[in-house]
Specification:
The chain has 292 residues and is mainly α. 58% of the residues lie in helices and 1% in strands. The protein has a two-stranded antiparallel sheet. Bound molecules: zinc ion (ZN) (2 copies). One zinc ion binds next to helix 2 and helix 4.
């Protein structure tokens, strides 16, 4: 039987087809981009790099802002999301990984696991994310009432700009962001390049990095998950890291975890060991990494 999460999820996905009933305007595309990328950054910056990996510390107000942005993406609560992500790294592409194409096939890894309320409804109370953040009142509330921010966003869009804003500012970007996020679990465990020979199937992929605000450098991330950056070099587009650096510069973030030199040295050896990578001499990791 389809779960309540499934009913809501598929209704929102289907609602994005309403885009064909609205006259096209470039300003609507800008609205889509703002809604997709801002909420995407809520997921990558707060849900992923902060709650799951504690790659940096941030001020409580900034944390609330990015967490609300993430919750508005309609991908359940921050503690649920990050708690499951911890299991993903712990069991990457082995039994126990909630979303591995190798273990459970593409569909289940992309959507099935997210919609399977009976199996993945809760994280264990011993989960490190729950232990660290479960008692913070605003976070516990947002995790429990995670339907509130998306409903508020949808209502706000409709009240401000009418039906076209609801469709371009909520329905379409919620759909594209869901697939951009889930593609990290599927595409980034199937297609792309592998700088590091990790035990899992993780890959780097510039296309998923673009739509998932920097998360597509997933092989880098599986090699050194504590770092605040997933793009390890300046040419690996990682806007989430640029935002963390900006927050650090203005005092909103601190303890930003860098990629250790030994990992960069390992990257050089790994790149040299792969024959097809030798032609990419201009992108040799000999170049200094972006500000450390
Ligand atoms: Zn992964
Ligand atoms: Zn991760």
């Amino acid at each position: 039987m389809i779960s309540l999460t499934g009913v809501i999820f598929w209704l929102v996905q289907a609602s994005s087809l309403l885009v064909f009933t609205v006259p096209f305007r470039w300003s609507y595309v800008a609205l889509w981009a703002a809604s997709h990328f801002l909420r995407g950054m809520g997921l990558t910056l707060a849900y992923h790099r902060y709650y799951a990996h504690r790659a940096f510390q941030m001020n409580r107000a900034a944390r609330l802002f990015w967490t609300v942005a993430g919750v508005a993406a309609m991908q359940k609560g921050p503690l649920w999301w990050a708690g499951h992500h911890v299991y993903h790294h712990k069991y990457a592409d082995r039994d126990g990984d909630p979303h591995s194409p190798r273990v459970s096939g593409f569909y289940y890894a992309h959507l099935g696991w997210f919609l399977n309320d009976s199996r993945h409804h809760k994280v264990d109370p011993t989960n490190p994310v729950l232990r660290a953040f479960g008692a913070v009142p605003e976070l516990a509330w947002l995790d429990r009432f995670n339907v509130v921010p998306p409903i508020a966003l949808a209502a706000g869009m409709y009240l401000y700009g009418g039906f076209p804003w609801l469709v371009w500012g909520f329905c379409v970007p919620t759909t594209t962001l869901a697939h951009a996020t889930f593609a990290i679990n599927t595409v980034n465990h199937m297609f792309g390049t592998r700088r590091f020979k990790t035990a899992d199937d993780s890959t780097n992929n510039a296309l998923t990095a673009l739509f998932a605000v920097g998360e597509g450098w997933h092989n880098n991330h599986h090699r050194y998950q504590r770092a605040a950056r997933n793009g390890f070099y300046w040419w690996e587009f990682d806007p989430t890291y640029y935002m963390i650096r900006l927050m650090e510069k203005v005092g909103l973030a601190w303890d930003v975890q860098r990629v250790p030199e030994r990992i960069y040295r390992e990257a050089e050896v790994g790149a040299a060991a792969l024959p097809e990578a030798s032609s990419a001499a201009t992108t040799s990791p000999n170049s200094a990494p972006l500000a450390s």
